[in-house]
Specification:
By secondary structure, the protein is of the alpha+beta class. It folds into two domains: 47 residues; 167 residues, no CATH class. It is 30% helix and 25% strand. It has three helices and nine strands. Helix 2 runs parallel beside helix 3. Pfam families: ILEI.
């Protein structure tokens, strides 16, 4: 009886040890697989991060150099979607912000700090050009001026208003016509014509929308005003 009991004990211990060994081996394999998957995912994530293109301010295509302000802007789309003006990753004017309207939309920015000074829009179809002229005359030297049309930005423009905008660096303002799309970035006190201007004529043969040309977009880097 003692021999049989001892034999059962030996068998039980052997089964326990065998079971423990098998479980430990399976667990070790699963741990190795889990760690392998974890390292693989980490490596893939690192590759994805390294290949993902960088995002620049306002979504422009490349970074601006030091002492420059990044900007991106678009004219309105027909009479449906308003213009959008972004500077240094801050949306200054847009339909979402509910601060755009028919006519010429204007954002004024401090040329030294990049801080927003004012946003306005002037109805050049059913409005009066006089308030727009007074607004243009009051702009201070060193101010960055960003403009974009929505629907119609030209019908009520007169020679005085066009000349004031030309003095901000615009070339296209002299022949901006009914329902043309136009975006412009210039400045008060600028000594040369601005390189930042896009203009598409309203032409029934080439218009993207019925009665309106396609949206014009523009991006760039505005030099910061130095003392």
């Amino acid at each position: 009886m003692r021999v049989a009991g001892a034999a059962k004990l030996v068998v039980a211990v052997a089964v326990f040890l065998l079971t423990f060994y098998v479980i430990s081996q399976v667990f070790e394999i699963k741990m190795d697989a889990s760690l392998g998957n974890l390292f693989a995912r980490s490596a893939l994530d690192a590759v994805a991060r390294s290949t993902k293109p960088p995002r620049y301010k306002c979504g422009i295509s490349k970074a601006c150099p030091e002492k420059h302000f990044a900007f991106k802007m678009a004219s309105g789309a027909a009479n449906v979607v308003g213009p959008k003006i972004c500077l240094e990753d801050n949306v200054l004017m847009s339909g979402v912000k509910n601060n755009v309207g028919r006519g010429i939309n204007v954002a004024l920015v401090n040329g030294k700090t990049g801080d927003l000074i004012d946003t306005r829009y002037f109805d050049m179809w059913g409005g009066n050009v006089a308030p727009f002229i007074e607004f243009l005359k009051a702009i201070q030297d060193g101010t960055i001026v960003l403009m974009g049309t929505y629907d119609d930005g030209a019908t009520k423009l007169n020679d005085e208003a066009r000349q004031l905008i030309a003095e901000l660096g615009s070339t296209s303002i002299t022949h901006l016509g009914f329902r043309d799309n136009w975006v412009f970035c210039g400045g008060k006190g600028i000594k040369t014509k601005s390189p930042f201007e896009q203009h598409i004529k309203n032409n029934k043969d080439t218009n993207k929308y019925e009665g309106w040309p396609e949206v014009v977009e523009m991006e760039g880097c505005i030099p910061q005003k130095q003392d």
